[in-house]
Amino acid sequence: MSTPAHAPAPAADPLESAPVLVGRPDDRALTESLLRPVLEPMRKGWAALLLLLLGGMGFWMLCLYRTLFVGIGVWGNNIPVAWAYDITNFVWWIGIGHAGTLISAILLLFQQKWRTSINRFAEAMTLFAVAMAGMYPIIHLGRPWLFWWLIPYPATTLVWPNFKSALPWDVFAISTYATVSFLFWYTGLIPDLATLRDAAKDRTRKVVYGILSFGWRGSARHWQHWRIGYLLLAGLSTPLVVSVHTIVSFDFAISQLPGWHTTIFPPYFVAGAIFSGFAMVLTLLIPARKAFGLEHVVTARHLENMAKVTLATGLMVAYGYAMEWFIAWYSGNPTEWFAFWNRAVGHYQLVYAAQIFCNVVVPQVLWLKRARTNVAVLFLVSILVNVGMWAERFVIIAVSLTRDFIPSSWANYSPTWVDWGLLFGSMSTFGVLFMLFLRFMPAIPISEVKELRKELEHDDHHRAAARAAGAEGA
Amino acid sequence: MTSWVLGEFGEEKALLEAARTLRAKGVAGLDLHSPYPLHGAEEALGLRRSTVPLVALVAGVIGAASGYLLQWWTVGVDWPLNVGNRPPHSPPAFIPVTFELGVLFASLAIFVGLLFAYFAFPRVHHPVFEVDAFRSASIDGLWLSAAVGPDEADGVAAELRRLGAGKVSIVPGEGTP
User: Fold this and answer.
1) Is residue A256 predicted with pLDDT exceeding 80?
2) Which site among B103, B105, B140, B142 would you substitute to test the A interface, given the most A Cβ atoms closer than 10 Å to its Cβ?
3) CATH of A65-463 among 3.40.47.10, 2.30.30.40, 1.20.1630.10, 3.40.50.2300
């Protein structure tokens, strides 16, 4: 599996990298190949994997049931470690979601052509990751059925949420992020749902996709408003995604706890979020492009570019780790210094070692072009980065809590089976949602790929003309 | 009563040229349909600049202002909370929610505005869908449609054929464009 089956022949010009679109298929061929996953009969492999993931989702529901009906005493949380797997999972999932917004919004604003084929995929990942993330703070409330107390409404108790605390900020940030991600995703989907409506042969699909596409006619007026609306949503999502993880990091940074109380947290959390999110896109995209035969639109170029972003954000994260140590030493604060020694050589030193190995050492392999273009290596690196980022969240959140200022209140934390079940169960549930998305929605944006092909043809034309002119000159 | 005249073109240049010609002849209710945004369509049809950005700006300002006022009034005026002896009205602490609500309102206004105001959606049925071949408009077809009075329909159809359109068809009158 050293080279993908559809890898293009090496370009004549060594400075030209792999193409973002293999060949120049016409509109009908593109539509057919991109809609095949939705319109073809159900595959046995898909059904089997979905069933397996549904099993995991069932276990997740069992764990939720235990949590809701017995109480959060079924978790390993204690005092002082009141935040453990729950908040670790929350921060990890929300961070994963951020790469989706980065790919679809920020790269759109920078007019990066390679974002086109993978943006829908990444946005879906964002939506499902945020759905998983949002679950944890709510079940962690202890009485989750009262979560609406967080919303400012005129209650008979006359009490309002405390807007000077980071936790109500979180409520607004996460709910806004989930809503805007959905709107952005759906706005992009409307033209493709219309394509699906028109390409479908059976009545059920025609009716369902007809309703979902609201009656899109591809009119010049539709496109005019759609384009500007889509661009504006991208423009709004860009600062939004930065604000969301900044606010998440405020949950820790504005407290007093050694290991949490640092000003580097907002940029360091955002970089970590993009790092883990790109790794997750790779983890999902590498098998999906193979299974659904999408190697002509998700090419070696896409994978290589994502590997480069993973490496760059990985270096930012490594800088964050180094700077935390430096400030712990430079501040001259003994409790701060102790908190960091405790991470490296304390009770949880293996988790810390995993964090450093997966997040700092492993991504360095991506300096090599041979690693970036090798699908198997990329897949392995992406899995390890996901593990490493989870370990980082755990080290920051739980390990800092085990050793605060007063030795008499120190205690260790160990997870119960419910904690593990909620972590792996949420991965299964995420997988179920993703499998359904791949089967029932166009995972590659069809209209945008057609537009991209036109732009590329235009470029081809210019390049050919320039070559001809050069030949004449010589 | 309006009749709909539809015709398919093989390539963009011919389509845009036909739109320009018909518009110059005073044919009203012209529209183009394509599977991806066409460059030059707005100019060919003489469409004005989209007002979506203005709607988004107004909604965003309303959202941010209401977010700030909400926090100022609830924890600053109605029930002043003393947390860590910070003043009841603490502008820096109110920035995150203000920003989030601004973005939320602007995004909702764009989405809802697009669907319901600009596109008049949901409209699952439309006269153009009466023509079965029109389904290619979202796959690989480039179409021109004209909503005209029933007497003009035949003339416009003949003009479309002359301009190089194929599959020219007329959907007889129904409602407004």
Assistant:
1) yes
2) B103
3) 1.20.1630.10
